[in-house]
Write a structure and sequence with these properties.
4 helices; 247 residues; alpha+beta; globular
């Protein structure tokens, strides 16, 4: 029995069926069947597949669940499945990575001021974006040669052991620290997961960006409250306008 929501084949496969039925607002989609966390998929075995009321069946030759040859990985995916969409969009991201390497030989492979362009189609599902992000983080670290792009600190790999004198009540000890992938234009300001908007930073440099962003956001909220307060003071009550009160 075939199902378009199974991302891999075999006796047991991860199920990535999404639905807005589970959310209160009916807008944000979540996994219908999930593991220990709502964002973790559950493994669908033959028994669950036979009982599942949401399965989308398809024969080997026709229908949404039909196996189709993928021009990117040369494997076969079920038509309309998450696996097929993931393969297509990940191929698009890899094409952007290759283009950036060719356009900037010997230089940094990202834009200094970032970008809001998307490396895949705008209608890409949130689940596929999350799966791509898990792959993209490692690809960006390899692209930047496991080196912080601000201070030049070399890690050699994604994480390393670092001696910290503050541990064990001043006696010192080793702890693990990992490279972090930074969005040059923050997601909160429209930044995307485009490789040109991503660079690798050490925890210290990334923390400085995060601190500055929080301070800027706090300052913007403070200014909004001041403007609304002055508008309320100037309002004589006859204009019929009510200033927002949720700040």
């Amino acid at each position: 029995m075939a199902c378009a929501h199974r991302i891999t084949g075999g006796e047991a496969s991860y199920c990535f069926l999404q639905s807005s039925r589970m959310s209160e607002e009916g807008e944000a989609k979540s996994l219908v069947f999930h593991g220990a966390k709502p964002t973790w998929p559950v493994r669908c075995d033959p028994l669950l597949l036979s009982l599942c009321p949401f399965r989308e069946e398809g024969g080997p030759e026709e229908g949404k669940g039909a196996l189709v040859r993928c021009p990117h990985c040369k494997k076969r995916h079920r038509g309309g499945s998450t696996a097929k969409r993931l393969c297509e969009d990940w191929h698009s991201v890899k094409a952007v990575l290759k283009e950036m390497r060719e356009r900037r030989p010997g230089g940094r492979k990202y834009f200094e001021h970032g970008t809001t362009l998307l490396p895949y189609r705008p209608d890409t599902p949130d689940l596929v974006r999350q799966l791509i992000w898990l792959r993209l983080k490692g690809a960006i670290a390899r692209r930047d040669a496991y080196t912080c792009q601000d201070c030049g600190d070399f890690f050699g790999r994604v994480r390393r052991r670092n001696f910290d004198r503050s541990l064990r009540r001043g006696k010192g000890g080793y702890r693990w620290e990992s490279l972090e992938v930074h969005h040059i234009v923050p997601r909160s300001r429209g930044g995307s997961d485009h490789p040109g908007n991503l660079k690798t930073l050490c925890p210290r440099c990334h923390g400085a960006y995060t601190s500055d962003l929080r301070m800027a956001s706090a300052e913007a909220r403070r200014r909004e409250r001041e403007v609304l307060s002055r508008m309320r003071e100037c309002d004589d009550g006859e204009s019929g306008w009510d200033a927002p009160t949720d700040y």
